[in-house]
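Support case: user asked for a sample of complex input and structure output to validate their parser. Sending the pair below.
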Amino acid sequence: MNSSPKVPMPTLERLATYLRYLIDLDASHVETISSTDVERQTGINAAQFRKDLSYFGEFGKPGVGYNVSELQGRIARILKIDQMQPVIVVGAGNLGSALIGYPGLQEHKFHIAAAFDRDPAKIGRRQNDLTVLDETLLGEVNAKIGARIAILCVPANAAQHVANDAIAAGVRVILNFAPIILKVPERVVVRNVSFLQELAVLSYHLSSETPT
Amino acid sequence: MNSSPKVPMPTLERLATYLRYLIDLDASHVETISSTDVERQTGINAAQFRKDLSYFGEFGKPGVGYNVSELQGRIARILKIDQMQPVIVVGAGNLGSALIGYPGLQEHKFHIAAAFDRDPAKIGRRQNDLTVLDETLLGEVNAKIGARIAILCVPANAAQHVANDAIAAGVRVILNFAPIILKVPERVVVRNVSFLQELAVLSYHLSSETPT
DNA sequence: TAATGGTTGTGCGATAATTCACAAACGACC
DNA sequence: GGTCGTTTGTGAATTATCGCACAACCATTA
């Protein structure tokens, strides 16, 4: 039942956005939305919204719209965030700690099952019911946890090494905060988050717009 | 001398990537690179690299390649990160603190000139030579600082309000970490960073690849 | 000076993503 | 049951992005 042969990446990214709004709407007891409602709220073209969904089947009723809670459930299932998933975090510096303490992760069904670092000063530190473990134990520990998602919050020069270890430990997808392009086997999916890059793009836009 | 009429967004994003690698290469005293070298290191197609640069003029010598330090300087100038830029951070929670303590920002010529929060418990706290200020002072303080870049690390329900204030205070581009789509005037540029979204996309990819 | 090996900058076709536009479907109302 | 206003799902057109392929160019060596 792997329904979708080739879903565009931008579609997947937008699905996550839709889901966020649907959760809010559901919390506000809104029962039904139309694609034009979505456009008003998100700025994403209504046809785009419908086409995004169409990759995964039919969701709405013509003349009526979409049932909020049903759609929410189905998108969550598509993204596989309908049930808790274990995640490991490597690197317990400022950023890693911020992630560990971020309640949004739990809400979105991601459970940080273990945190690692190689700095002895950080190993053993406790935070949110979690003890920072020695990075060298990654393979051993994940053999029990079975996390297939890893979040890398280590410095650029350590990232490739850590990624290799994580992959060897069974990790299949990586969220990489280090400003470096990881070399990984084809089956492994990596997504990079780089605020420096984002800031650079923003910085570029500063002069292009002339005031008044 | 606003040379470039319409540069694709993906090009800008890649420019920031190139810059990172050039900085490293320069530090390793590499003098020259070719576009194929770039492809080997970054995985970005060599022709893509050349085309990206072509939006801004000519940079290389046929038969030779590109001078690393010169190219680095020119890309930095294009992205306007060749000289220090003041940035304000709103929201001094876990994430905001992590950013304030992140040395990479300084290295990339972004100087956090002020940090704000609305939580009395956080106001007055000091970190990295910076005192967290009351959010209501944003306009007043930025009149002196003149920052045109703001980083939003506030919860989703506060983000729109803070964005409005920041824009009123002269901010022109926003890096938004809150999981919400901000409504801003056309002249203001927003970029969103959402690890939840990234995780969701990664999560989707978990099942599509079948083992063996 | 001529020939050679290597590299750039770019026109152009290929691929991907977005948006339009409309038939088919639905509920409400008469 | 028929008509009307609304909204979906999607084929087709449009727009954006990518990557090939090649002429023009440069340094080196003979």
